[in-house]
What we know:
By secondary structure, this protein is an alpha+beta fold. The protein is built from eight helices and 25 strands.
Amino acid sequence: MTKIRWKVINATIFWLILAITGYSDSRGPGRLTLEADYAAFRYQGDTTSAYVEIHYNLNRSQLKFQPDENGYVALIDFRLTLKDTNGTTLDTASWTAGNRIDKLSSLAQSGFLITDMLADIIPFGHYLVELEASNDGNTGRTAFPMEIPAFAGAGPELSTIEFAYEIKPDTAGRFVKNGIRVMPNPSHEFALESRLGQFYTEAYGLDTTSVADSVFHVAIEVVDVNGSVVKKHPTLTYQKPGESAVISSQFSIDSLQAGIYGLRVTLVDGDSLSTRMSSFTVSIPRAVARTTMLQGIMKEFPEAVNITSEEDSKKFHDEITFIATSDEMRLFESLPLEGRASFQKDFWARRDPDPSTPQNEFQLEHYKRFKYASDNFSRFQGGSAGWRSDRGRVYIIYGEPTEVERFTPSPEARGWERWWYSGLEGGVYFVFVDYETGGDYTLLHSSKSDEIKDYDWENKVKFLWDHR
């Protein structure tokens, strides 16, 4: 195989107007989320190879930037490996890309993707592509199979389908093809709120003889994982500009459920046709997914919004114990049942961060924490009163810790945990110890200003039996 001469297109930043939901790093510290895909097009005059673009991107907010004389810069080292179907390495390419910002506060803006691509002529066949990106000790990897179709030239044919975030006319630039700027979407993911997906493909081998039709047609269908058509778009008709043509269009994802689908594009030229299909994912915004999840949790706590009995009143009293003021608790306890229902409405209204929205975000978040604490911090396995524990109280008040250190029991000490909260008072921690080795952890010390203090906690953890 001829050595591939990868053409590295300089990285660019692309601002997505839509909220990007698929690029935050959910795999833990030290990992970069990297998305990659390819598109293959006919290479005019070559009957053995195709023009191939490998697209990739990552979210700028994942990167670590270092100061320099012009602001801040992040250097990203890339390595691409091309293998055959037996796993034999055919070629590799390595390069470094830089991204620059003026100020670190820019990283707080979500939706900035660093988008790049490599391009070259590759023989028809099946391959495996592995791509790795590294930045300041953090690494991301992705791999995908790549099938380069043989464009036989014996009738109408379609190139592979390239999904895109944006397609618009343009005459020059790194992502321009045939007078169209195509910003690739290598994740194949579309947010449901966008309502439309976009794609680009090319038609070849159109019949331009004198007896042929002057037009060709394109059918666009969305199918589910079983191959059943769930959306069929009106057939598009194009004038033939010659024996090849560009097809850039949209497809509706409105009313689809979140999940995996296939886009099937069929080129019809007279009595001949050619079909390509590529899978894509419809996702709902994380904020919406989170709200939906929280609303489901709220169904488990009907007394949170409607006190109708003394039992409801008791449950609600327990649920707000750690977030209500002492004055509020005394007032609640002094009221009759009807008054407690009115108190409840005022209680949540005072804490609603955005009254203009239909949901009370504070209330939803509180019950998420309350349920988690109840289910996970009970002393006995399968119990549900974990909210009463010290860990439950801290979790309900302060939320999920930034980091948790867990230390198992040893001959020198009981088991203990340290919870870190980087966003509180510049960074604080809570130390919990399991005195009875039964899973009931007691708060021993916290560096937070208004929490319990025991500055000898390290010795007490190490020599628990002597210092208790």
